[in-house]
Design goal:
heterodimer, A: 307 residues, alpha/beta, six-stranded mixed sheet, four-stranded antiparallel sheet, 32% helix, globular, B: 401 residues, abc type-2 transporter like fold, 2 domains, five-stranded mixed sheet, 5 strands, 63% helix, elongated
């Protein structure tokens, strides 16, 4: 952490009337790292990103990007940023190459188009109309437009939402390559696996504030020696659940599963086995695992990332 | 600058590739120009479907086998109504059938040129001899000449009717002579005379400026909300705003592309109007061009106005549709608008189209202008200004500036 952060924000605030979408948040993004904003929909992740991308203006707070302290992100800063928006479209009747020609005309020092096409594996689709592309291909085109200026800082706002697993893996591979190439990436996601796989640093956001920061490992370690035990919830009533309260630190029903958090795994298992011996259903589909970012979020807020 | 040029190119490319916009920007105006011209030129000039023609017979009359006189008589009889109520096919008028060897005279050709007669039929000297030769020795048909005036549809119509009458005669003469093999006795040769400069009223000359304005109007009214609102609603513009591109530069590029589309419309409509429909109106003069440019700018601004009062792209298209018909029809684009009921006249007076169409036709010398030139220029200019002010303060781009 000897190099100065590439992005540094302090007490950043954005409100719409009485609604505080972003409520005085502060964080630093290290150069050549992946910084992830994790949180449920409406937590203020996208608003924060939009301020950093230069399409919204903050009401208050200090903003330092590439070592320049500014009131809002201007044209000069945008020259060195690449943005993948959460939602966005392209003219359906343009060809892939024409889209990239258009975007490269917006920048002072664009990269060669063929090179960018190769980066996102769209060389063969260069002459295809945008309207004929699949969802994953469109997303790769969007990434190509974000990389056309060889940016120092790349924003990936929910990059894999709505994509199939194969397309998701392609996007992850591109993000990995970018980090290897020394780019700083700011990622938002509500996929816990994605945050765990890609992030160097994570800030957990809820209701416009940052409630925890750290590496994924550090955040999970906050939960101490906790082990998570999950099993099939069919036939478990709420009264029965309350009789199990004594066996562990916390137990609750989560969809079709009962989830128990414990600091003493053996004691809890003994308790559960004894309880299940008297049940017709027994203890089915049991899983034992270490806590993940989803559990961190749950512990911090009492809610899930995706409701 | 390269960003503006690239945006302009994208605007034109997508408009031409998308079937809907291609139809409304180019196919529909061309279609309307051709169809209205074809319908109204004939009705307008032919009227009760009597074609005034002239006939010159240079052949010396003879007692036997005088085919020239037979043809003359046929056209005379086709020009005389059997009863008072019957309309005649032709109106054979001055110059009366003459046996003048020096004909056609300059005054006879002028009558064609000026549209006094639709066509002039010339039976040459030695015609009877030629017919006999054609029948007996198969030396080729005897030639008749029709003079017609270029670009006048009534003239072309007369020519084709004359040809049919001659062909009918040909068949009868051959039958009478007992020849049934495929052979022609007569051939009709036509000579086109350029129409006179002081051309009588031609509907296509009235219509062409109107269709040009309609093209610009459609492109502005539908093209601006279509591109900008759909671009905003579908997040196409958002992708631009996260790059160094600014709204003013986007607008500059968009307007350049819009101008190029209008120019393309102008070229296509003018070429078809001039060379396919025979329009003679001279557009390439400063004042008419000024009105065309003003029209393109006014409707571009008007499109921005519509885009700024609509919340969504679909609402924008609905508003454009509502405004489309009254502005087009109550602006005098296709027909002269004279005595309208009071309520409609109010629409006419606030419609910028009225002033643009009036000013354009007035400066082209096609129609007598209703409004003085400064008024015809000022009203659309004022509309442009108001639209720009409203759009400038209301239009949302999806970016905080």
């Amino acid at each position: 952490m000897d190099t100065p952060p590439i992005v540094s924000i302090r007490r950043l605030t954005k409100h719409y009337g009485a609604v505080r979408a972003v409520d005085g948040i502060s964080f630093d993004v290290r150069d050549a790292s992946v910084f992830t904003l994790l949180g449920p929909n409406g937590a203020g992740k996208t608003t924060t990103l939009e301020i950093l991308e230069g399409i919204r203006r903050p009401n208050a707070g200090d903003l330092t990007v590439f070592g320049r302290t500014v009131r809002h992100v201007d044209r000069g800063l945008k020259e060195e940023m690449g943005v993948l928006l959460q939602e966005g479209g392209f003219e359906p009747y343009l060809r892939v190459r024409e889209v990239l020609q258009l975007f490269s005309s917006f920048f002072r020092r664009p990269r060669p188009i063929e090179e960018v096409l190769a980066d996102v594996a769209l060389t063969e689709k260069a002459s295809a109309l945008v309207r004929t592309l699949s969802g994953g291909q469109k997303q790769r085109l969007a990434i190509a437009t974000a990389l056309i200026n060889d940016p120092r800082l790349v924003f990936l706002d929910e990059p894999t939402t709505g994509l199939d697993p194969q397309a998701r893996r392609n996007i992850w591979a591109i993000a990995e390559r970018l980090r290897t190439a020394g780019k700083a990436i700011i990622l938002t996601t509500h996929y816990m696996e994605e945050a765990e796989a890609l992030s160097d640093d994570v800030a957990v956001m809820d209701h416009g504030t940052i409630i925890a920061t750290g590496t994924p490992r550090e955040l999970c370690a906050q939960l101490g020696q906790t082990t998570i035990i999950e099993f099939d919830a069919s036939g478990v009533g709420s009264e029965e659940l309350s009789t199990l309260q004594g066996c562990c630190r916390a137990i609750r029903q989560d969809g079709s599963l009962v989830v128990a958090e414990t600091d003493d795994f053996l004691k809890t298992m003994e308790h559960l086995l004894a309880w299940s011996a008297n049940r017709a259903e027994g203890l089915r589909d049991i899983t034992v695992r270490q806590p993940n970012l989803e559990d961190v979020f749950l512990t911090l807020t009492g809610r899930r990332l995706r409701e | 600058m390269k960003d503006c040029r690239r945006l302009a190119r994208v605007h034109v490319t997508t408009a031409l590739r998308e079937r809907v916009t291609f139809f409304w920007y180019l196919v529909f105006p061309l279609f309307l120009l051709v169809i209205l011209t074809l319908i109204f030129s004939n009705i307008g000039s032919v009227g009760d479907l009597t074609l005034p023609i002239g006939l010159v017979n240079q052949e010396t009359p003879s007692a036997t086998a005088d085919f020239a006189t037979i043809i003359e008589d046929v056209f005379l009889s086709l020009s005389q109504a059997g009863t008072a109520s019957q309309t005649t096919l032709f109106d054979l008028r001055s110059p009366d059938p003459t046996h003048d060897a020096s004909a056609p005279s300059e005054s006879q050709l002028n009558a064609v040129r000026n549209g006094d007669i639709t066509a002039l039929l010339l039976i040459p000297e030695g015609f009877n001899q030629d017919v006999l030769k054609a029948v007996t020795t198969d030396s080729g048909p005897a030639t008749l000449t029709v003079y017609l005036s270029g670009g006048r549809s009534s003239s072309e119509l007369a020519e084709s009717v004359i040809e049919q009458v001659i062909a009918g005669l040909d068949e009868q003469i051959l039958t009478t002579l007992g020849r049934f093999d495929p052979l022609s006795t007569f051939a009709v040769e036509h000579r086109t005379i350029a129409a006179a400069d002081d051309e009588p009223f031609q509907y296509v000359d009235f219509l062409l400026p109107g269709i040009l304005l309609m093209g610009f109007f459609t492109t502005g009214l539908f093209g601006v909300p279509g591109t900008i609102l759909f671009g905003r609603d579908r997040g196409i513009l958002r992708r631009y705003w996260v790059t160094p591109l600014t709204v003013p530069r986007y607008l500059a590029g968009f307007s350049m592309g819009h101008g190029a589309l209008c120019l393309l419309q102008f070229v296509c409509l003018w070429l078809v109007g001039r060379f396919a429909l025979g329009a003679t109106v001279v557009i390439f003069r400063p004042l008419p061009l000024l009105f065309l440019v003003l029209g393109a700018v006014t409707f571009l601004a008007f499109g921005f106005f519509v885009a700024s009062v609509a919340r969504t792209a679909n609402a924008g298209m609905a508003i454009a549709n509502i405004l489309n018909m009254p502005m087009m029809f109550l602006g005098g684009l296709f027909f002269p608008i004279g005595d309208l009921p009071l309520a409609l006249r109010a629409v006419m007076y606030v419609n910028p189209m009225t002033y643009l169409a009036d000013g354009l036709r007035g400066t082209l010398g096609i129609d007598v202008a209703m409004f003085p030139l400064p008024v015809a220029l000022a009203v659309p200019a004022a509309w442009t200004l108001v639209c720009i002010v409203v759009a400038g303060s209301r239009l949302r781009w999806g970016v905080e500036r």
